[in-house]
Amino acid sequence: MAANTKTSRKAARYAVPVAVAGVAAATVAMVPAFANAGGPDLPKVTAQQLIEKVAASDVQQLSGTAKLSTDLGLPTMASGLLGGGGVTGGSADPQDKVAQLANGTHTFRVAADGPDRQKLTFLDGKDEYSLVHNGADVWGYDSKSNEAFHEKEPQGSERGGDKKAADRLASSPQQLAQEILKEAGPTTDISVGDTAQVAGRDAYQLVLKPKQSGSTVGSVQIAIDAKNGVPLRVQLLAAKGGKPIVDAGFTKVDFAKPAADTFSFTPPKGAKVTEGSDAAREHGAEGKGDGFKALDSFPGLGALTGGANGKGDVKVLGEGWATVARIDTGAGKGLKDMQNDKNTPKEAQQFLNSLGDKVSGKFGEGRVVSTRLVNALITDDGKVYVGAVTKDQLVKTADSAK
What is the pLDDT of residues 139-192, one digit of tens each? Predict the structure, then answer.
């Protein structure tokens, strides 16, 4: 990949591309916020102006504390699988730690000094887990087990590890907001909501709502610092109401330059250190997508992905908020085969029997597994349809798929 492409990717991490303003222009509601609903009294702005403010923000240095709460409504059994579905190099592996954020409430300290230095320290319980990116090195360290994970970018590459461990630092409100805004398009209505105070700072709120029917998402609300344009909080609200599905925001933030030693890390004496490449080889996960690895992690379900050599095909159906991914596992074995197979482990049988509602249609028969955000249809012939859409919309999409 050309160096200028990598440089662009690096810049995109810290400021929403200016192009977003143009892409979203046709869908932005050009109406200022009139009601503050108890929030700070700020000058009126349009959604277009807010997007441009985020895009123009050049803040690359900050430190503070953030909180992430996630309520997907996962079944108990599924919640127990979190953290064990990916390539794992032990308890210090960043992928394992980030996977645990998919449920519950988590607090962490965050610091950033440009695109090459960031640090997240998870503060769940008395033990700490730190994820540090400093130049070409990414370290994960678990104080409880005294284990460390290390990944280094290849020599001669500029930001060569963008898609590796460095990306696992993208859990801050800034990163979430940037990803959401980059994806905003003609299926999204964008407006300005009530003002708010987040981490003691005055903020506007940008509200994104699906124009399409059938989405499980009611809206996404992004609180944006009124002075510097930094996203301070992101809330994902369900179409059915209730508390946010995802609520990620700073509780304390300072935009001064962090001390240089904030990003220094040396494994403590006696710590077990695992290199990223060693972890991948050890678990034989090269060449398989995260979705297949998650299925493989549960006893007996590897057959649905064709085992370690599965070559499942993924097709995207629909667009915008109604997008559904169809995974044709290529395993030649579906749910019914698994349930009737005497060699299927007891744990897997129990899991299969606990899966959600039975459904049928032009696609055949299957079961729908539901959370507050995502629904997944697993068919008897080995296909999987998954998306942030309602059960009815999912079945409708499967019926019309070719």
Answer: 999 998 999 999 887 654 444 444 444 444 444 566 666 677 777 778 899 999
CA distances from 144 to 103, 152, 265, 341 (A): 21, 24, 17, 41
CA distance 297 to 91: 16
Q: Do 126 and 28 have their domain in common?
A: yes
114: left (phi over 0), alpha (psi -120 to 50) or beta: left
Cα separation of 212 and 34, whole Å?
Answer: 26
Partners of 25 in the β-ladder: none
- Say whether both 184 and 234 belong to one domain: yes
> End-to-end distance of the chain based on CA atoms, in angstroms?
34
Residues 212 and 114 in one domain: yes
Provide the domain limits for residue 314: 287-400
Assessment of whether the complete model's pTM goes beyond 0.70: yes
95 in the same domain as 12: yes
Going by C-beta distance under 8 Å and a sequence separation of 6 or more, which residues neighbour residue 156? none
Q: Where are the beta strands (DSSP E) in 98-245?
A: 104-113, 117-122, 129-134, 137-142, 147-152, 188-192, 196-198, 201-210, 217-225, 231-238
3-state secondary structure of 351: helix
Same domain membership, residue 206 and residue 81: yes
Measured distance CA(118)–CA(10) in Å, rounded: 13
